Amino acid sequence: MALDKNGIAQRIAQELRDGWYVNLGIGIPTLVANYIPQGINVEFQSENGILGMGPFPWEGEEDPDLINAGKQTITALPGAAFFDSALSFGMIRAQKVQLTVLGAMEVSDNGDIANWKIPGKMVKGMGGAMDLVASAENIIVAMQHTNPKGESKLLSACTLPITGVGCVKKVVTELAVLDIDPERGFVLLERAPGVSVEEIVAKTAGRLVVNGEIPEMKL
Amino acid sequence: MALDKNGIAQRIAQELRDGWYVNLGIGIPTLVANYIPQGINVEFQSENGILGMGPFPWEGEEDPDLINAGKQTITALPGAAFFDSALSFGMIRAQKVQLTVLGAMEVSDNGDIANWKIPGKMVKGMGGAMDLVASAENIIVAMQHTNPKGESKLLSACTLPITGVGCVKKVVTELAVLDIDPERGFVLLERAPGVSVEEIVAKTAGRLVVNGEIPEMKL
Amino acid sequence: MIDKRVANADVAVTGLEDGMTVLFGGFGLSGIPENAIAAVRKRGTRNLTCVSNNAGVDGFGLGLLLETRQVKKMISSYVGENAEFERLMLSGELEVELIPQGTLAERCRAAGAGIPAFYTPAGYGTEVAEGKEVRVFNGKPHLLEHAFDASFAFVKAWKADPAGNLVFRGTARNFNPLMAMAGKITVAEVEEIVPLGSLDPNHIHVPGIFVHRLFQGEHYEKRIENRTVRPRP
Amino acid sequence: MIDKRVANADVAVTGLEDGMTVLFGGFGLSGIPENAIAAVRKRGTRNLTCVSNNAGVDGFGLGLLLETRQVKKMISSYVGENAEFERLMLSGELEVELIPQGTLAERCRAAGAGIPAFYTPAGYGTEVAEGKEVRVFNGKPHLLEHAFDASFAFVKAWKADPAGNLVFRGTARNFNPLMAMAGKITVAEVEEIVPLGSLDPNHIHVPGIFVHRLFQGEHYEKRIENRTVRPRP
Predict the structure, then answer these.
(1) ipTM for the complex shown
(2) Backbone angles phi, psi at C171, to 5 degrees
(3) pTM score, whole prediction
(4) Residues of chain D positioned with their CB less than 8 A from the CB of C173
């Protein structure tokens, strides 16, 4: 059975390692914070200027001076730090953040990502996404395998204007976990419980490597 | 009579304007702070990281964490701010400091300055001088008119390795106040009390413009 | 002490003229110079090029200057959630230049640090790279980006002393310190001006040298754009 | 919370190898990492390229590593007042590269901000410009300068919490925050490690993400290089 959004977040959370600083994008990526494995210490960075981001505030304790990059009201954990946007993107460009989780509209089998603009539609802007994908060494994309029309979002080449070149390392969808090997394409690592390899093959438009038995995800 | 070091500093202090941020180099320039004219508010920046530098501390109140660019123990005035070296030179390069006063070994009549290196002698380094002279819009050099051998330090071209190109606007020596007009050379504005124009002419090797009556400095 | 205080927001925007480029601090609606925006609206200055990470919302923040058609061009990284903005942009009444958020921040910082240009990897291979010099450092392509050249910067801090030393609170800091550094004339508005000497000199976020005019805002709405809470257990 | 504490200075310098490039915070003798310097001396690592604004004095600061011939090259802006340094330099036992102080600071900051290169006016037309690209911006020539690439950074702060958030005091801040940002492995030593949550998150000078190893120094001499006082009236 295909995963729901929380399932995708939960699977991505298994990629967290002790001592990592992590930047979570808007949408499914934000949910990853709810599934940090036991015994793992990570800290969340939000590019508008906080390290040590905590959960949403209790009702009535919202602070307009304390938001995340999605403009949501948040809290700061003990040991948090606030900083300006230049320092924030400084630490991103200098690769001090070990993991970046982003949503995407399209990903290509060489790791290009498109997630900021649909021609003909009102453009909202790239925000910090272009800085993040240009610098992060470890980018996981969290997205649906297909778009609302049923077309694959895992392509041989992005059709939409790209956000960054050859940067995505891993994709987690409601159907599968895939690595990206720029030489070989999407490498199928795991499938969602009960989802067949055939379904993944059918819904992946880019080059797809299926080697041997593909295990089910453990959630 | 030629000025002493304090006289040079006192004359330079007359150039201060209300609301200016000022960087004073080591040596004679440091003495300028002792002669701020009445009714003028200025703030002193030291490039190691302080704005609002005050006088030397009272004996016994020296603080190793509070020094100026000459490594002298200092104090901080109310309203002072400490900052790192990048921000400090950022404000220098961005021309937020209205006046820079420096010593020099040589100045040329197009405004070049040499003040960091004597070939054949042990080089100590340029410190922040190259950043200061490359960016400051208003540089006054405080120095002796001649070197210990009696040779002019106001030249048509510097003989020593230069610190910066065409940057000095004004020179104050024990004999004279001179503007630098890159087209015409040193322009004699004032002479020290009792010093003759002839002496200044004799001791200035670069192009020198003497127009009309040259008044004595008022100290 | 060099006193940076001016009487009010109207005095603080003196000299702002049609066609100028202006930096506005804030991220979303957090840390925006509410009182300066109101004063610019009142002044009626037109054809402004506004550099701001976002463009406000309908009826608040920079949305107030879009409503009155005072903005010729927006330079931002993200402009979503603003119907008036969308209408003006689609009708061609408003130019928009979108640039990556980190590049926006660094171009402000560069202006305030006297660095005319720098290289960043952000945007390489994308539309943002069009017309820009590409250079490879450490095997990786980078774009040449330039410092902003802005006449005014409007920023909002939490506290200041009369010398213009600024202190920010929480994530309301965001672009404000960088834009404060970058303005030829920097106008800072604050929630409170505290007596000289009451701010710890170790904890000044923006030294007063970068601030030309300072005033205490009359009122701060500090609207929350996206209220998210945990229900109390 | 990601805990950055290590047992002591000796553990903190683990992995430092012959021939590495190392950044040392401090200006003059103010804010220098006294305990890390002692640990590097004890470790005996050789052929180091040391980036530090100054080179210490005879018998203190980096002078201690010059004495033991552990330094192959110094990259500094000012190296006066050190007889051993002068002897080593004149005898050719020590290479020296002198660069403008602001450029030194900005090259550290660039490394910590992922900016591989930038333009600065400092040094144009001087010996420092030799071999460097010159480019004119706004009618003024600038030099292209590159970010430092250093294996280790040793910095000294006043206080830290266990997460490695650093706070500095007075002008002992100087190069320390920039070098902390720039190190591949950043070792911070502090006078006091305070409990988590006791530092105001608004007043962190260096967020812990930049700090890899943290320890409380055993002893600080904090020598004054140039004691100047006013006699009491």
Answers:
(1) 0.97
(2) -85, 5
(3) 0.98
(4) 202
